[in-house]
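Please, structure for the following, as C-alpha cells.
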Amino acid sequence: MLEGFINTHDNFIYVRAMPHIYMSLNIACYNIGDYEKSIKYIKKAILLFNYFEDEYYAGRCHLNYINSLRYSGNLDKALEIVNRCKNKYKKYNKLYLSFFIQEMILYFNIGNYNKVMEISNEIEAHQLSEMSEHNYEFMIGHIKYLHNDFNGAYGLFKKCEKYFLTQYYYRDLLLLYDDLYNMTKDISYKAKQNEIMNKNGRKNIVMIHC
C-alpha cells in the first residue's frame, strides 16, 4: 500500500512524513525477507532525517540499516556502519549503547565469541534499554554455557526468556531452550523447543534455526 502511495503521489505535500513512511517500508520489506528493498528504503529515511536535522531518528534508522545489512549477508558493511555510529551518536546514551549490542550481535553470529566478550566489557548492562539488556543477557548466557559456566548461563537465560516469548523471538528461544536442556536434562525444555519449532516469529539475534 505504501509503495503504491509514494509511486502515485510524487507531489506529496507533507514531506516530513516521508522519512517515517520509508522507515515503515524498510520494516515491512525486512520482515518479508526483501533485504535489498529494505536497505534502499532505510537509506532514503536516513537521508531525509539528516536533511531535516533530526539526528536522533537518523541514528535510530541506522539500527534498522545494520539489521538489514546483517540479514542480507553484508556483515563487513554492517560492522563499518556500527563503528561509524559508535563515534557519531555518543550523546544519545541508550542509542549509543545499542550500537555496541549490534556489534556484539554481528560477532555472535560469526562465532567470534572472544570479540563479543571484549565488547561486553565496555558496557554497563544496567544502562541498556530493556531490549538491549535482554539481548546482552542472551548472548553472554550462551557463551557462559559454552564455557561450562552453567549456573551463570542459567541465571541469564531465565532473565531474558519471558521477554523473548512476549516478543516472539523464536529463533533465539530455540537456542536458549537447547542450551537449557543440555545443562539441566529437563525434558520440559525440549517440549518448549518443539512447541515453537515451526512457528513464525520475529527476527532478533540468531539468524538461522538451530
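The chain has two domains: 1-89, 125-210. The mean pLDDT is 93.
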